[in-house]
Amino acid sequence: MLFVGDDWAEDHHDVELQDATGRRVARARLPEGIAGVARLHELIGEHLAEDGEPEQVALGIETDRGPWVAALIAAGYTVYAVNPRQVARYRERHGTSGAKSDAGDAHTLADMARTDRHQLRPVAGDSARAQAVKVVARAHQTLIWDRHRHMLRLRSALREFFPAALDAFDDLTAPDALELLAKAPNPERAARLSRAQIAGALTRARRRDVEGKAATMQAALRAEQLTQPSTVAAAYAVTVRSLASVIATFNTEIAQMEEQVKQCFGRTRAAEIYLSQPGLGQILAARALGEFGDDPTRYATARNRKNYAGTSPITRASGKRKTVLARFIHNDRLTDALHQQAFCALNASPGARAYYDRLRGRGANHHAALRQLSNRLVGILHGCLKTGTTYDERTAWAHHNQDQQNAT
What we know:
By secondary structure, the chain is α/β, with parallel strands linked by helices.
């Protein structure tokens, strides 16, 4: 066996090679790209036994994605993606001075690959389609988060000089609100908007009850309000027009990216199983699949999948004291998608609703009950993926229904 530690940076990699005894046999700083990968292969070839195979190379690195990692996996090496927090804690086992260097981190990663690889998880062998879903689903969600940040900036600006707009527009990301704010970004111009202009914007946004909403908006925009000096108001108006334009662009890009997510997700082999789960539509299902991946060997048990999802609780026990807590270190994108699924499942699945109601009846608050429901739904998803079957309402909740009958 040959053990490699790879401390990566944007333009270079510090690597260290160790043999089975922990003796350093090579150390180098390699450039990013083809030349660096080729040099790494040469180093490994020089120190691996003549009859050695790529599977005998264990490599630790602090990332699980990128062309460099893909090249290492393609070469047949066993690649372990190590969390930087784990590397930091492991480094503290062998020194308390706090010293840190790139070469030192490469040494630590090689040591971890040699001594602790049974505790580490190899990089999952997800299919190219699953990786594509992850890329577009993350891009789509990031655009939504960025739009929300710009919406909050717009809201803050309006509150400073044009509070009537917040009463007139209930959704600052809606097309009608953005069109009217771009046309009339200050109180004076907004007060001069005719009902026909407002109704036209509502019609183009496909709103219902156009006349009634137009009258309500016009009244709100013409209501008396505190104002800023004209010079300050003009500066805010420029800001509002700019933010409205940016948010409108976000709306267009989000809609286009949503179509890309649906197309990529529809081509995956597990799409039917994910879509059969209660509370999962195409977008949430794509996010869940992208974050879970589709490597069939990645999660040996339902508990493994739940732990990765961050839905299962953690236990802290010491002496006579035992505390059960929610996990706060998790994949935020996956946890967000699963939490939304649990909420939507309340209306889509009678079994999920009954399970949630029982939890609330025992004193759990709304979010705690949703978290436990999400944990249960992850277990159901795992069973469906392992057996290759779609969701069945009766099978999914038969065990809990039986326990409830026995309890009563």
